Each structure stands twice: as C-alpha cells, then as structure tokens.
Amino acid sequence: MDLYEFSILIIVLAFFCEYIDSSLGMGYGTTLTPLLLLMGYNPLQIVPAVLLSELFTGLCAAFLHHKAKNVNLKIGTKDFKIALVMSSCSIFGSLIAVVIAINLSAFYIKLYIGILVFSMGILILATLNRTFKFSWKKITSLGLLAAFNKGVSGGGYGPIVTSGQILSGVNSKNAIGITSLAEGLTCLIGVITYLAFTNHTIEWNLAPSLVAGALVSVPFAAFTVKRFRGDYIKLIVGIATVILGLVTLGKLI
User: Fold this and answer.
1) Model pTM greater than 0.85?
2) Rounded to whole angstroms, what are the CA distances from 158 to 40, 89, 244?
3) Total structural domains within the chain
4) What does the pLDDT look like over 86-112, one tens digit per residue?
C-alpha cells in the first residue's frame, strides 16, 4: 500500500476499535494491533502508525468529551491536572518502553500486557460497590505504568489508565475523558521516541487509513458516554478489561 493510499478494511477496523476506545477509555491499540499483525504487518510498521492515529483521536475525543460535559478539562481543574500528570509520566515510561520493545521478544511483551490488563479488570469487578479514596501517588504510578505499556506494544494504555483511575477514586465518566487527553499527549511522546531511537525509516503507510477511520468514530463515542449512567460504565469497563486481557493471553497459545 502506497503512503497516500487508503484501505477501506483498515478504515473500518480503525472506526470500530476507536469507537470502543473512546467510549470505554480502552481497546484501540490493544485490539487493533493483533488484527494488523494477522494481516501481515510487522510490529514496527504497526506501533508508530497506531501511536500517530491515537495522537489525533485522543485529543479530539478529549475535546468532545469536555464539550459533552462527560469531563471537565479546563486548565486548572482536577481532571486536567490528572491528565497532565499522567501524560508527563509518559516521557519516562515511553523512553524506557521503546528501548525494551526494540530488543525484547514479542511473546514476553504480550504475556506481560495480558496478565496486567486481565488482573485490573478482575479487580474492578470485585470492587464494583466500593468507593476508593483519591490518591495522587496512585495516579503518578499509573501514568508511568500505562505509558510503558503503550510504548512497548502500541496498546495496553487505556485499560490500565481507565481502570486504574476508577480504582484510584475517579468517577468513571471523568476517567474516560481524562484517558483520551492523556493518551493523546502520551502518543505524541511515543511517536517522537520512535523517530529518535529506530535505526531505519519508519513506514507510515498504515497511518492515513487509521487516522481517517478513528477520527470519524469519536463524536459517536462522546455521545454514547453522555447517555450512559456512571455505574453502568464502571461495570462495562471492568468486563471489557477482563476480555481484552484474555484475548491478549489467548493469542499466545
């Protein structure tokens, strides 16, 4: 596929994966990366293109979630500060992750991501009726861990950040909007890091189709979150996190 050629199949895949991601705060890279691998693309073609597309869609989703009043991302608000802390952590997490991703077996990367995501989902479902006290220490640790996951595999950011925020005392709707902004900023760092650390020219042929498909889905996702009750979203986030973890682990068998 030429740099400026669009693939209808990839556009459709990106649309549905990003709709789930922007509705639940997870699922784009974690779902799309394995699908693209099955289509014959290699990881160093996929991950930078996924990061680039989520740079655009993350910022767009954050804006639309804010406009829909799913979250308050005005400068100075608690939600904005949480997103800023997590995206700031991405500088360190992504740098470490990209260096490891280039040198580590894909099997162990997927095994780690799968176990971690699955565990977070189980924890949410086991604590559905509990309210957690907010903690900046938890948020900072969460940002480092999630950015590491994103840089390593192109996925694993949303499940950790969204579920982790809920377990850190953040409202589920707020968590989804915050994740969109933090993920967009984190992907910017990830793209820059790949450009700086890879020794060959990155193929961006997937990027136009991924960006086009993903961007179209974002307004629908923001409307979906606005219509759902927060407790339902928390349940769905827990179930989706468990499923994503199991799918990741299942692909290793």
Assistant:
1) no
2) 25, 15, 11
3) 1
4) 888 777 776 676 666 666 676 777 787
Distances (CA, A) of 94 to 66, 70, 152, 153, 245: 26, 28, 8, 11, 21
Q: Give the pLDDT band of residue 14 (cuts 50, 70, 90).
A: very high
Q: Per the structure block, which two tokens stand in for 77?
A: 């608000």
- Tokens at 232, concatenated: 């339902």
Helix, strand, coil fractions of the chain, as percent rounded to 5:
80, 0, 20
Is 2 part of a structural domain of the chain? Answer: no
Q: Is residue 25 part of a domain?
A: yes
Q: What is the DSSP string of 104-119?
A: S-HHHHHHHHHHHHHH
- Whether 203 has a pLDDT exceeding 70, the answer reads yes
Q: Are 249 and 109 in contact (CB under 8 A)?
A: no
Domain residues for the domain of 160 are 8-250
Q: Are 159 and 117 in contact (CB under 8 A)?
A: yes
Tokens of 58: 């993350």
Beta-carbon contacts of residue 18 (< 8 Å; ≥ 6 apart): 28, 53, 57, 213, 214, 215, 217, 218, 221
Which tokens sit at 42? 């290699």
CA-wise closest residue to 23 among 196, 252, 236: 236
Does 116 fall in a domain?
A: yes
Rounded Cα gap, residues 83 and 177, in angstroms: 9
190 falls within a domain: yes
Gap between the Cα atoms of 245 and 238, Å rounded: 11
